[in-house]
């Protein structure tokens, strides 16, 4: 098939079949285009996380109206009831003219998806930034939504750490896979969501000229906006320092970690989480090489998770948790391990898979997550565009990396239409279509369209997910507001 006909076919799947209407207006895309009418588990539902690529593509395609309506619909579905007040739905669906919502309470295994709530302010910021729609963001219902979101996420807790503590399977990996605690993807999204929320509040305060009113006595709602703005900015600072201190590793850092003492107590110690050298896996030596670096999967007392998670790392780069130099080492790591991470189908979702007794005990014998399958080391084409974006938005991107992306784009161009835009691929190289993969999976289709857009149509648009810099936000924080 020629490139243009693949693009046309993909666009037609998106616009004619995946995008669905509710009460006469486009409201989002289903997770997978159903093969037969009727239920296919919950793949006929509109998932917030699956709609992230859709909405970004629609923005690039001049369809801001649909994105705004999607954001408004999610806002209306933000939970108002205790104890879930403030969370956004994992998914929703039109059943006989009424919207039925899933906050996780209907999901397989009743997992709660925390990433959906974190994605909403990020998408909202991207929308506002791209379209310049200040009228929307200065609307009190939007600001109220942000306030409820922040009430939920920036609350007192038992741990003195700026990371968000979540149960197993709280994000794209929505089944048990030993990703409880402080998994990277959630932390990277938290970082993005706090940056976005702070910026959205600041736009409102600026628009209403509240920054210049000195010590004016504001009504409680506005006071709360100022309070949450400052709190978010301080939280962001702590979160980034924490992630770079505890999650970022390269060869030198591993050598330091291996030689740390254990059983330390008190304030001035080097091994806060009492991590034993034996938890540091030997495969890291080959995997990191001299130049590679990445953010590890999780930090927990005594049980760090050194697995590599593709999406969390790409988001860590895109949202600038990683410094520029760290982003370059992350790309070096990808180049070095391309035969594993990209292989026959980019990207592998996490590396390495958990096997044997670990698979049994950590997944609860989950057959969908057998080693080299699905979330457990499977390959997901919907992740490729995140890597493309992470690379292209870098000032000092290397030609080697760009070439690599083009090679893998060609591979997707050849394979995906032939293999019906499958959801995921199995096996150590990702050659086989996933055992239980859906076909015509929307984020596979849209992920490909995005990769095409950024690599072939307009690389400049890779700035679309740029969030405000921490430095910019910190300047807001220096204004004495109280
Ligand atoms: C599966 C995936 C999840 C996705 C959903 C719909 O549950 O694990 O990440 O959102 O399918 O595609």
Short synopsis of the structure:
The chain has 482 residues and is mainly alpha-helical.
Oligomer: single chain
**Unreliable runs:** none
Rg over CA atoms, rounded to whole Å, is 22 Å
Mean pLDDT: 95
Helix/strand-derived class?
mainly alpha
Give the CATH level 1 class.
Mainly Alpha
Are any ligands bound, and if so which? alpha-D-glucopyranose
Succession of helices and strands:
HEEEHHEEHHHHHEHHEEHHHEHHHEEHH
Q: Give the termini distance in whole angstroms.
A: 63 Å
Indicate the CATH architecture.
Alpha/alpha barrel
Structural domain count? 1
Taken as a percent bin, the fraction of beta residues is 5-15%
What is the helix tally? 18
The CATH topology turns out to be: Glycosyltransferase
Q: Fraction of residues in helices?
A: 40-55%
Strand order of the main beta sheet, please?
3-4-5
Largest sheet: 3 strands, antiparallel
Shape: globular
